[in-house]
Each structure stands twice: as C-alpha cells, then as structure tokens.
Amino acid sequence: MKKIRVVQTAKDTDDRLTPKEDLTLLPGLMESPYFVNVDASQCFQTIEGFGGAFTESAAVTLYKLPVEKQAEVLRAYFDPNTGHGYTFCRTHINSCDFSAGNYAYDEAAGDHELVHFSIDCDRRALLPMIREAFQTAGGTLKLLATPWSPPAWMKTNGQMSLGGKLKPDCRQTWANYYCRYIREYERENIPIWGLSVQNEVEAVQAWESCLYSPEEERDFVRDYLAPTLQR
Q: Domain residues of the chain, as ranges?
C-alpha cells in the first residue's frame, strides 16, 4: 500500500507545518462512471513550479515583524528543505490592489521617453522581500511580472482604477515600459522570468485595472510588446 505524507497548517489550532499520521492510498474502485487515467509515459505541458504572489502590502506586513520572525516566514515559504519550497511567484508592475497605495513608475504625463521612470517605490519593501526570498530559495525562483494598470496618463479614463483602456498612441510607450521594468529589476539582481500582458483583462475594478478585448491584447503583443522585447 502506498502512503501519503500529511503536513498540516490549520486555523484555531497549534498546527504550523505539523506532521500528521500518514494516510494509506487504497486501490481505486472503478465502479464510478467518472474517473481519470493518467498515462505517465506521455508528457504534455511542463509544470514550471508552484508558489504565490509578491505584493507591496505583503512586504510591508513582513517587515513589521521582528527580524527573526521575518526569516521564519521566508523559510516557511521558500526554503526547499524545511519549508514549502516555492519556486514560481508573481509580482506586480506598478501598484496593484495589494499595494500600500496607488503609484506608477512614471507619473509624468506625456513622458513617452520614460525620462522620469523610477522603481524607487519598490525599493522600500517589495524589492528587499523578493531579494530575500530568492536567497532563501537558493536562487531558484522564477518570477512572473504582471501590470494591473498602465500609468493614468496612458489610460482613456485618465486614472489607474475603474477600468479604462490603454490609449492607442501609448502602445509603444507601454511596451517600452515593460522592457525598462525588466532592465531595472535586473540591475537589482532580480531576473524576470516572464510577463503577462494584464491582470484580469475583462474586469472593471475599483482598484487598478485596464480592459483589453482579445483582439486588442493580440494586437498589442504582436505589433508592440513582442517586437520590443525581441530588440
């Protein structure tokens, strides 16, 4: 009989990554009309990893803890031997709904050359947390970066919240913005593994959001973002 190792963390208990009694995997009953057969000899998509999200609010909260507790939290999530061993995480470009406030890396209206671009706001808490997580994980983390909204001056509604769309005349600037973000993070020794175009492309939210139709997202990637990344 195969055994299943159980480690439990549960609210209103003292269980914090607490080992529990092993479970026994019993032979499956094939009487049900619903079952899945897994053929381990055939491989399709690759699972890149498991993890969570790096947000500014998480970082601010982390650094309110005593130093020893900060290290304990990071080990619980990222240590490959004593913790969950997270290997794949997402973070936000500009602010998101889990930021301490609303901000963009370039808030100078009409700055298409991105002269005023700066990630200083991330240096306060977010970047240090990501850097420590990388160290705790042994440098094996893959980081996916996603914007919740372009800067307000690039939006049709003039604000980062409540939906709106990317202005057509800002598409190249916005593509350049992604690349500038990647370069700035690499200067901090934090490599960006991948990008996604937009968080929740169909959602008008009270927080940072931006709308794309499938065709608009396709055209932005094909005509602006992909060529800019390739350069």
A: 49-230
